[in-house]
Amino acid sequence: MRGKIIQYNGADGSGTVVVEGRQYRFTLDTWRADSAPTVNKVVEVTLDNELVAALVTVGDDVLLKEKAAQLGGKLGSLLNKIPTSTPSPTGTSTDASAPAAATPRGASASAMSAGSIVQQYGKPILVAYLLFLIGTLAFNAVSVSAFGQGMGKSLFDIASLMSQLGGTGGGSIKALLLLAYASIATPLLWHDRRAWLAMALPLLALLWAIFSTIHAMSSLGGEVTQGMSDFFSVSFGFYLSLIAALALAVLGVKRTLAAA
How far apart are the first and last CA of the chain? Predict the structure, then answer.
């Protein structure tokens, strides 16, 4: 069964793992991995008479695949629930772009709006946009591991923290992220084929975040940068955001060229 380490003491090799809401103490002799246990690490737990008999680490690649599959299933279910057509007076479905007179008075305005949005943007753009939101707001972009403790922050949280502390580029990264979140509304507000180029704003925000980070690290010097790299690692949220941003940029350019 799956569990998560919530506490570990490197001094005596003891820790606590949570399994299905219950906490269990464990010792280092039950640990089955080359590296030391870390807080927030997901593990496979074997119990014997309510005692931890073995802990086996779950690979990051396995967790990423499971999260991606779960997220994809939820997004697919969500989009499938959005109607792409509106009912006609005879009970048959009609295209959402049909004249308003064909829609009965009792039809749901929200269903009509949802259907027209899906038709205007297409599911690929909506899915990519949702993945970008989730990747930058919900998942960790960077993880920090030190002294047996682990933590992570989303890209938006990092930008907000840098902005509050006066860090280089923090405010501009946050501003670009906010523009990227708002970019989805551009084709609705500006009826021009060039409006689809706004779909490249998420990619621009990520590229600027990468540039600002590299610039800030290089200004600290090579030895300091090397030391920090031992504690920091890029996490799933950043890769998810980057893939989604690339997809949005490509889809936006295609829409612009198709409307030419």
Answer: 55
